[in-house]
Amino acid sequence: MPEKACRECRLLSTGSVCPRCKSASLSDDFSGLVIIFDPETSAIAKAMKVKEKGRYALRVR
Ligand SMILES: [Zn+2]
Predict the structure, then answer these.
(1) 33 CA distance to ligand 1 centroid (A)?
(2) What spacing in Å lies between the alpha carbon of 12 and ligand 1's midpoint?
(3) What digits encode the pLDDT tens for the residues 19-52?
(4) Ligand 1 centroid vs 38 CA: distance in angstroms?
(5) For a tag on the chain, would you pick the N or C end, based on fewer CB atoms within 10 A?
(6) Distance 23 CA to ligand 1 centre (A)
(7) CATH no. for 4-60
(8) CA of 26 relative to ligand 1 center, distance in Å
(9) What separation in angstroms does the CA of 29 have from each of 2, 17, 42, 57, 61?
(10) Domain segments of the chain: what residues?
């Protein structure tokens, strides 16, 4: 099953709902991939308002 990006939190997952925010608003039209290992110290995580580690889409349409 192809990965989809959550439109709410941009987390990538393969299910039909986002495992993090439970949103069913998922898109397969996304670009970029950001892997956050340490949201505490990551400037990217801060810019994306990500508080948990994981794989995120940079842009979701
Ligand atoms: Zn989400």
Answers:
(1) 15
(2) 8
(3) 999 999 999 999 999 999 999 999 999 998 899 9
(4) 18
(5) N
(6) 6
(7) 2.20.28.90
(8) 8
(9) 11, 16, 25, 10, 6
(10) 4-60
